[in-house]
Amino acid sequence: MSEKKIMLGNEAIARGAYEAGVKVSAAYPGTPSTEISENIVKYDEIYAEWSPNEKVAMEVAIGASISGVRAMASMKHVGVNVASDPLYTISYSGVNGGLVLVAADDPGLYSSQNEQDTRCVARAAQVPVIEPSDSQEAKDFMKYAFDLSEKYDTPVILRTTTRLSHSQGPVTLEDRVEPIDVPYERNIQKYVMMPGMAKQRHIYVEQRMKQMAQDGADMPINRVEMGDTKIGFIASGIAYQYVKEACPEASVLKLGLVHPLPRKMIEEFAAKVDKLYIFEELEPVFEEQIKSWGIECVGKEIFTLQGEYSANMLRKAVLGEEVEVAEPAQVPARPPILCPGCPHRSVYSVLNKLKIHAAGDIGCYTLGAVAPLNVVDTTVCMGASISTLHGMEKAKGKDYVKNWVAVIGDSTFLHTGVNSLMNMAYNQATGTVMILDNSTTGMTGHQDHAATGKTLKGEVVPAINIYDLCKTIGVKNVTVVNAFDIETLEKVIKEETQREELSVIITQSPCVLLKGNVFPNKCRVIPEKCKKCGACLRPGCPALTKTADGVAVIDETMCNGCGLCMQLCKFGAIEKVEA
Amino acid sequence: MAENKTKNIMIVGVGGQGTLLTSRILGGITVAAGYDVKLSEVHGMAQRGGSVVTFVRYGEKVAEPIVEEGQADLLIAFEKLEAKRYAHFLKKDGTLVVNDQKIEPITVVTGAAQYPENIIEELSSKYETYSIDAMGEALALGNSKVFNIIVLGVAAKHMDFSKEDWLKVIENTVPPKTVEMNKKAFLLGYES
Is there a contact between A170 and B30 (Cβ–Cβ < 8 Å)? Predict the structure, then answer.
């Protein structure tokens, strides 16, 4: 079988998992990693799930590996933080069946709260990392990662970045290898990390990493491409492609194994070139190690620590080529916004009216931080809204949080928010938590979770009832409100924020982009009734604009008929009509 | 750069306008023609009504997956403000295909900025420009969603693939129920 197909990096990673004989895959959605699981689901041979968070996903994969099959977890870079507790220790235990963690970094922060470099985590956890440079390698390296994992008794991280995960390129397909099923044998020296055992395993870990560094020169994923010896580059991942684009004549050491570094190979390469550049996005991980070996090289002195790299950047910095570029036009910015008909806009329009601050969380609703909604004051990480609100109350007292709420989505609540709510209940908080339940994981493109009643594989299962869950935790005041009923919402928010008891308000309405949604209505302005007050425009619905003389206009192709603008109009100038 | 015969195409628009489907069709046709190809797209938060850009590069061997400033042979813009935003990515002799549609960004709606006037006239004076009211045409066809395929049809006139190949790739790429509508939309642009 040698069919060629154009594949997204993430699709190729999924294909690689399939060909490698993976039996179990677990993940939590997060850009730019989400499409890995969404493609794995196509292979019936693999059990694949959305776990509630990355720590759980990692542990599911660990369990599968210990039982003797090939297993993987995939997540975005910040998800690795959540999964780092099991990761640091499974590094000691090692594996039975191969174990691979796919970690997707986001240089340039296309959809993330920070720009951290997974290689730093991997160094601290002493876990080897390999990094592909295109879709074909994404698939091939995935298979190689499992071989390495089993050979060196270690979990392996396959690192990808947004530009690789979300680029498409041709991939040659191969058959699935016969999945392994290694017999399980009780071995507490390896799988029970109590101090006495862990001490011994730590010795093994150090030896393992040393051995891999030594063997790196013979690994096919590391390769030297000798060309002009005046300039040499060491690069991996997508940065390698920029080198090939800008300096096709130069010598390159292309690293596939990016941790531990194949020291001897690097020393030999460095000796062959006159000037050595280390071209790596984000942290100077290679550079600091290579410099520490006394090798002269240039890296972050001329290349940035932030954002994505490019071929033009190299042309300028290394070749001194002035790339002639026309001045970009000065045009109004177009930042991402909530969709027309988004239930979050409705909730935020009420919070904005009541001048209530929100401790925010991770999801589309983070967009409530900016104009015109201006509601969200803080965003840290998944689940943090609830705990930060709690911290504020304990610092400043009950009255202080009477004009604050925490806002968190349904998927994020189940991810880690639920722990924080337990903490509020346990430690006698009085704050108000709003769960913006849109029946999906919205921002990453509509993934199911434990409260949607459907699995990644599409099976219908009992759904967690968020109302019951909050009650079980011990929250006395739990109210469910339709997200578009702004009158009731206003009343409930006023009551609950003033109440000196812990409250949860669950606002419900499905994400407007959810498949299967039907919109029987659209809204329409009756121009002669419009008083040009601008109330309908205030929440910033993209379907609403105004004419030069101030009369509101609704774009019919964009409107979903949610009716928020209609409720906000005091003059009855907006009506609902059949779509 | 001069020795690089790779073709550089950019598709720009507003999140939700279907840039991903269009790039998939472009990817399909270049692979079918036996080229090496790389496409780079935007997913996730940046997609929510924001400015989005997709890069398509094809040729004998393609390394970099992105198109940089001053390198695009063809810029396909689904919205005219986005055409203006990314026009400097075009080569001096590059071609611009622009959908004559105005979608006000939130910065304009809130009054923080003004939507520029005469975008298409201005860009026409600098680049070889073809504009079409694709949304109007799509509504006339009875399906506002296929406006992007109409724009693609216009752009296809400036690329070296046959009509038959385009139609075949469209057939293989779009959902089966929408094949006829999409083919009609493509031809509307292609034969305009």
Answer: no
Complete domains list, chain A, with CATH: 4-218 (3.40.50.970), 223-317 (3.40.50.920), 343-508 (3.40.50.970), 521-578 (3.30.70.20)
Maximal C-alpha separation, chain A: 82
- The domain that holds B35 is classified in CATH as 3.40.920.10
Q: Which domain holds residue B156?
A: 7-190
CB nearest B46 (choices: A111, A244, A545) = A111
Between residues 363 and 392 of chain A, which touch chain B (CB distance below 8 Å)?
Answer: 364, 366-367, 371-372
Give the one of A325, A443, A537 whose C-beta lies nearest to B70's C-beta.
Answer: A325
B-interface mutation test, from A113, A161, A168, A541, most B Cβ less than 10 A away: A168
For residue A160, list chain B residues with Cβ-Cβ distance below 8 A. none
Q: Give the number of residues written for chain B.
A: 192
Which pLDDT tens digit goes with each residue over A284-327? 999 999 999 999 999 999 999 999 999 999 999 999 998 788 89
For A495, residues 6+ apart whose C-beta sits below 8 A from its C-beta are: none
- List pLDDT tens digits, range A230-261: 999 999 999 999 999 999 999 999 999 999 99
In a domain, B104, yes or no: yes
Single-letter amino acid code for the residue at A179 = P
Residues 29-68 of B with CB under 8 A from A: 31, 36-51, 62-66, 68
If one counts the domains in chain B, the total is 1
Question: Which residues touch B115 (CB under 8 Å, ≥6 apart)?
Answer: A332, B81, B102, B104, B105, B108
Q: Establish if B152 belongs to a structural domain.
A: yes
CB pairs under 8 A between A and B: 172
Burial class of residue A323 (count of CB atoms within 10 Å of its CB; 0-12, 13-18, 19+): middle
Instruction: Pick A111's closest partner by Cβ from B45, B69, B106.
Output: B45
One digit per residue, pLDDT tens: chain B, 192 residues? 334 489 999 999 998 888 889 999 999 999 899 999 999 987 766 667 889 999 999 999 999 999 999 999 999 999 999 999 999 999 999 999 999 999 999 888 888 899 999 999 999 999 999 999 999 999 999 999 999 999 999 999 999 999 999 999 999 999 999 999 999 999 999 999
Q: Least CB-CB distance to A323: which of B49, B70, B104?
A: B70
ipTM for the whole complex = 0.92
Q: Is residue B2 part of a domain?
A: no
pTM: 0.96
pLDDT of residue B2: 36
Number of H-type helices and E-type strands within chain A? 21, 23
**Cα gap B41→B70, rounded to integer Å:** 19
Sign of CA dihedral A274, A275, A280, A285: positive
